[in-house]
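Kindly draft a polypeptide, keeping tokens residue-aligned:

***
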Amino acid sequence: MAVVAPSDAPVLILGPSGVGKELVAQLIHRWSPRAHGPMVAANCAGLPESLIESELFGHTKGAFTGAEGDRQGFFRTAHGGTLFLDEIGELPLHLQPKLLRALESGQITPVGSDAPVEVDTRLIAATNRDLADAVARGQFRDDLYYRINVVELVVSPLSQRHEDLLPLARQFASEFAGAPVRLSPQATQCLLAYPWPGNVRELRNAVQRACLLCRGDVIMPDHLPPKIAAGASAERPTDADADRLSRVQRATIVATLEECNGNRTHAAKKLGISRRALIYKIRAIQADDD
């Protein structure tokens, strides 16, 4: 991505639904010279077919019934920045030549107007479809396919990108909580053990839930959806594994107490448990030490 970002070349991002294709597009925009400009995102599958041309290229007042004023459209709104078209494979065939012309000429013609308008917009497209197969079936224009596929990026399922999982979880947690949030070692194990069939979208939802249930600034397994939290217990079949996890829990409690200078009330709040529960755990740790 770092190599692609500085150019104005169109980018086609491929990958299953929910893998974070829009996140990749946002990073490309953020690292590009266009970062100061707008980043406009549109889902082609979610736009009404009767209005998609107007949504993309804008329209003039009176261009059609209900057009009570001028509309800029996504291309002009993204002028000087980046336009991200998700699910590009769902773009109606009759509109594909107009998109191709906009990319090749740098001009768009609003609905109801005869005057072309200059636009300076970089296109990033994404799809979960096999566009090469769609071209072979006559469902997608080959000239548009080659125009948007100057640079092709493939985003693998989250289950194959363990190195991305925890950074993404921490980023989402910070966004939802509005402040730094830590993952406990147990919660970290739960996240790493889960297969994530829903990819990044499922991870985002799980972290959002955890932030809502977390009373402190530490996400624990109990804050995660049950099917994700169950992943850790499924991997504790032996006494040795159980002892290892209890040592992880002990280390978390001790470290949090040190951060709070021994203040049990503050430590309990950070851990997201009651003060009484923390005292019980401290006594259990002290009994083990004895």
In short: The first strand starts at residue 11 and ends at 14.
